Structure prediction request, 362 residues.
Amino acid sequence: MHFQPVFETKKRPIFIAGPCSAETEAQVLATAHALAAQQVDLFRAGIWKPRTRPGAFEGVGKPGLAWLKRVKAETGLRVTTEVANGQHVAEALKHGIDVLWIGARTTVNPFSVQELADALQGLDIPVLIKNPINADLKLWIGAIERIYQAGIRRIAVVHRGFSKYGEVKYRNVPLWQLPIELKIIFPELQIICDHSHICGNRELLHEVAQRALDLNFDGLMTEVHPSPDEAWSDAEQQVTPEQYQALMEDLIVRRPNATDKVLLHQLGDLRRQIDSLDEKIIELLSARMDVAEQIAGYKRENNIAIYQPERWREILENGLAKGSSLGLSEEFISLMMKAIHQESINHQATVMNDLEIMERSI
Ligand code: PEP
Ligand code: MN
Prediction:
């Protein structure tokens, strides 16, 4: 797949800003004029709002599109809104919306994404695709593919975090490895971080935006409202245009690559150390699987089950204790140990079932 950029790549990150929802014409225009005076590339405002429970404000609908048209005419800003069905696409196009975005609750549903793709067939309009609400990279890729198959080439993606049960620091947890994996698969895809929906509150906005820039995201999407506390949706996470300006000015923009020779040399040395350590880790893992296979031999002779819950608990506890003493997070150790354990079970199952064992170098 070959994507074209939705935004001209500049020397600075891309900034998308505007209210969660268009509420009144005055609110939309006030926000847009304040943002037009700042470095903003695209003005956002939700016209049709997917709300978790009925009875909440579900957007102003069609009349809001005329307000966005006024924003364009008066400020010169390009505008974007969320579309969730074919009707939304038709209305948005009729009103000259420049960029469409697909929300997290829509990306999750292949029927809806296909309906959008059908409505977009043969058109040339940029589309932003938010991650699905659950941490399913394939579902995100599937949505990108459906829109691409409709002939849309200007596609960018938006990381807005993932749902999680229970109280956590974030409204939607930023599982950074997912957008990073996506970027590895599709290096040309521009990737934006919607820190407002990740955070769910104003206080965390800076921290998450800086993290996104440190990870070389192409830009940020931020909810901005003239009087955030009175917003009809997502009040806690919105900021005033002034707060937005201060927030953006505080960010440190990292360079995507090192260019000067001394720095490249220093990085080169460190990267060689990393490569050699990675090689050792893989050799050690292979040696560990050899031992697991020997154990499986004994288990087979004595007719003992492969999976021993007590032993697994002991291995995990040992790993967590060692990891914590060396400054490695519980989450990482537990993920790593589970992956190792699974691979070990697979190797043991091979021995148990008397299947051919791969030739190994060690
Ligand atoms: C939004 O951007 O206002 C929105 C509804 O976002 P999401 O689809 O990420 O929940
Ligand atoms: Mn919102």
